[in-house]
Design goal:
It contains 25 helices and 2 strands. It has helices spanning 46-67, 75-95, 101-117, 129-141, 257-269, 277-299, 305-310, 312-315, 319-326, 331-344, 349-362, 389-406, 433-444, 446-451, 469-472, 480-506, 515-521, 530-533, 538-543, 551-569, 575-590, 599-608, 615-624, 634-665, 681-693; strands at 177-178, 243-244. It has a two-stranded antiparallel ribbon with strand order 1-2. It is a multi-pass membrane protein.
Length: 714
Amino acid sequence: MPDQRSGPGPRPPDRDRLAPPPDSTDEHPAEPPDPPSRARTAHPWIAPIALATLLGSLVAVLALTFRGDDFHTAPGALSLRYAIAWALFAAAAWTVRRLGARQAAVFVLVGGAAVAATGLLAPPRTSTDAYRYAWDGRVQAAGISPYDYAPEDPALASLRDHWLFPKGPACHGPDRAPVRPAPERPKAERPEGRHPEARRPTPERAAPGRLIPGGPALGGTHPRADPAPDHAHSAPGSAEPQCTRLNRPSVHTIYPPAAEGYFLLVHRSAPSGSTLLPLQTGGALLSVATTVVLLAAARRRRDPRLPTARAALWAWCPAVPVEAVNNAHVDALGVLLTVAGLIAVPRRRALGGALLGAATAAKLLPAVALPGALSGVLARATKPGEPHTAARRTTARRTVLEKFRSTGPGRPAPAESPPPPPPREGAGSPAPAASRIRRAAAVVLPRAAVLRPATSVSRPTVSFNRPTASAVRPATSFIRPAASAVLPVAAAAAVVALGYLPYVLLSRSSVLGYLTGYVAEEGYETGSAAADDKNRYALLRLLHPGPETWALPVVAAVLLAVVGWVLLRGDPQRPWRGALVVTGTAFLLMTPGYPWYALLVVALVALDGRWEWLGVPLAGVAQYVTARAVDDGAWVGTLGYAVACAAVMAGWALRALRAPRAASASRPPRPPAGTAKTTGTAETARTAEAADAATPGSPPGSAATRPRRRRARR
């Protein structure tokens, strides 16, 4: 019956306004979703107009934010603009939920492109990492491994220019690091060889002009090798100071191989004379591509309206144009690969693991999301031979729905299937020796176990009234946890190893670069004095002072407990949920001070819809930007992460209180008196079907309320 309150047309179930059904899957929906009603209110045009106004205001505020360089001069004003942008983003993300799936997808995609384009209006405002990206790409284009030399090494002096290595008055601006002047380059020809020198050059004994002859020619779209007027260098005795825009010019690069390949690709694709605009354009393309992947995944959901609206949590988030586009952080590449990998894991575990490995090879942080790909692999069935709860409900619903289609009104009922054979003696007892051997072989050789089914598979027996366990799950499914645990991790490790292999073979220095030094510099090393200066472990510091001496074992223990909970209780059809829990917990425990790290959290929130975790990137902004506006601003970051933790706990409590209501709302009507009760899988299937088909105002006798024909037990 049409809903008189919202105009003509069917109205979706009330539970779709909150979240998708807990036992639905993203692939192979049991039935095509009903078209959502576009008349959500009495005036359906109000929501689109309001959403367009909010998005236009968001774009305008972001454009004004990027046009002004207030990070060093007025961080308080910059924080105020950030707060306005986040408020507009929250209002727009709430308004888009009132639209249908198709209309929301258009707004999400177009609005996301407009929001990302604002980051192209100015050079990087709050970070200098993009200059290091450009330098690493230039070094690789010259045929030199980026892991062999630090930027200020005289061996790379011929690659310097006035853009990355300014001199004189240009060195008085912010974010400039002094470097020693490059020595005069000799006029001699470059000798042939595979490397600049037989041993690493030193400042006293350097060969700056000797490059790898096998590398590309330094001309055309690449920096010039010969010192031209645009690439002049100061003499060793010159009094004119020389500096660089690169941060940490005295250490080797820290970025993994996939990131280095991305830098080289952008450098080769950039036109001559370009600076950071190619890297910013690459960040914008990666951000929009992530939005497209989220929208494509939403179309496979049983109700695509709500997942489509959730994609706006990434597309319109102010952190995306600031960090992924304007600052051109390579985290955008890792986020795209992580999102694609987690979406692919439920259907193609090897491909999903490979994508997660590529994300780790682009930015090491996505490795924290890898336990999400193993969600539920340690969970056990309730009885021997029965599937997991979510899989059993989903398969039972499909079986009953297919049977109902074939036995609808006016169709003859098929002959009843013969009852299943009685269970063998000892069915509930431990598996025999042969089964134990097969299980052990499955752990050691999971692929062979999957390819070769066990011989104890019983013939599937499908019954309309009572589907048996053999019809729901084959006897070989006990080996799936072993294969599920091994395959994504093995694929990810193989991709990371293959990514590092070329650099290991061609580099003479460690391919880890400055990684260990960076960990100590950021205060994550036991006993490091930088933990107090950078306000690391801010929440643990509230429990006991001096966390730099004891926090690391505590963080490891808590993360192991969270990972174990994900492996035991996680939903294998929603691996992003477990990845969000593990990643968000790591952020709350370690309280990093760089907001671009939280781009991964924003993408996982867009996949799962748990909005309370958006407090984590906001806390990073407070610690990185707002703390500069006050004296002794460490308390600002601590307060931000404390509020974020409180929001996460409040969201968890609200969802726990709402769960019983959602379960009671989806419960089917009580059968008429005199009807035999049924239990087990058939009852679960009928409950799921009634929850899927029931709509408010369904007339008596419809598919949602008509009682099933039941077969009484003898």
